[in-house]
Amino acid sequence: MMKKMAGIAACAVLLQAGVVLAENRAETITFAPYVGGYTFQGDQELETAPAYGFRLGYNLTDNWALEGIIDYVNTEGKKNSGIGDNQEMIRYGGDLLYNFMPKSNLVPYLAAGFGGFNFNDSKAKAIFNYGGGLKWFMTDNVALRGDVRGLNYSMNDETYTNVEYTLGLHIAVGAPKPAPKPVEVAPVVLAPAPVDSDGDGVIDERDNCPGTPKGVRVSADGCPLDSDKDGVYDYLDNCPGTPVGVKVDAKGCPLDSDKDGVYDYLDNCPGTPLGVKVDAKGCPLDSDGDGVYDYLDKCPGTPKGVKVDQDGCAPKVVESTTQKAAPVATRVALKVQFDTGKSVIKQQYYEELKAVGDALNQDKTIKGTIEGYTDNVGNDRLNQQLSQRRANAVRDYIIKNFKVDANRLSAKGFGEANPVADNATAAGRALNRRIEAVFE
């Protein structure tokens, strides 16, 4: 694809010496071959791939045009996605274009269209596109054309938005050259005396912010000062000195999206439920230090060092009433987190897993199941597969590193089932992305 793009750019350089006054003319037939790239929405688990296509169009007027389109993409599944290579997509349909400044060499445009596509050998599906681009006329009839489109379609009960970006040629044929425009001689106009209507010390013709209130300090272009560069003028800013790049409200104060009293740029725990008490870093309080926030802790006051479940409660101990007690199931929430879409265990969780391995080696009668869970973001089937891979990774790590009999430990993925917190918040989703172990 890069060689083809370079070839188009070389043609542009060769043609530049012959550039004349060109334009987008009515009643012309257009041909537009192109190459570019096609990026799939992330949860489709498909790699970005080259795109090739061709447009055939007709200019109804200088501004309005119709185009038919066909293009081709060949991609492959991402690593560990379970999707194979050689995934083919053919798209076809029609577009309506509106050209701005059609009488100039540079003609920007907007476009929208509708059509269909076939993915591998699947049944044709409807697809809608929208976007725009720019035509640079290097001769009367030949332009270099760049185009960016968003593409919306539904597949497997999911709606996706992909992006296609292309570069190619735009060739127009069939219409006579326009007559040269008459040369207009501008009348001589005497410049008026400088005026400073708002009295800020900058004359009106140089004032980019007319109507500034009297007494407000302004810059050389007549605009009120914004010392902290947050987009709110100093005389309206209730929170001066905001760090550069921090989003602010209309009064110039940093945003506090979850209303916990800690600005977003200082908040280490965004999405805290309304009314929950937080510390200076914006995180919910954990008074007994058991790793479960107070507002989720059903057993407050747990002694330090005692391991608890996701509700903040220590596992119940069942005393034997006979010489041989029946097996007792104990559920433990393991503090193991994964990167989005990954199943690789980070080194920081090795100590957590060592405690499990040591416990299994101390009592050879214990058997268990490693359970994997996800939040509800993304495709149900992919979440199920991801939770199984994560459960397998934890089981395999314990068996390999602590010499545990493989028959004593199994793995099961439950996807987004059995949430322990509300998936409507970021904090709740973080709690649902978990590993649990059930031992007997």
User: In what order do the strands lie side by side in the largest sheet?
Assistant: 1-2-3-4-5-6-7-8
Question: What's the average pLDDT?
Answer: 85
Strand content: 25-35%
Radius of gyration: 32 Å
Task: Give me the CATH architecture of the domain at 2-173, please.
Answer: Beta Barrel
The largest β sheet comes out as: 8 strands, antiparallel, barrel
Structure description:
With about 450 residues, the protein is α+β, with helices and mostly antiparallel strands. Among the domains are: about 1-175, Porin; about 315-440, OmpA-like domain (60s Ribosomal Protein L30, Chain: A, 2-Layer Sandwich), CATH 3.30.1330. The protein has helices spanning about 1-15, 350-360, 380-400, 425-430, and strands spanning about 30-40, 50-60, 65-75, 85-100, 105-120, 125-135, 140-155, 160-175, 330-335, 370, 410-415, 435-440. An eight-stranded antiparallel beta barrel has the order 1-2-3-4-5-6-7-8. It has a four-stranded mixed sheet with strand order 9-12-10-11. Strand 2 (about 50-60) and strand 3 form a beta hairpin. It is flat, with a radius of gyration of 32 Å. Mean pLDDT is about 85; it is low at about 1-5, about 10-20 and about 315-325.
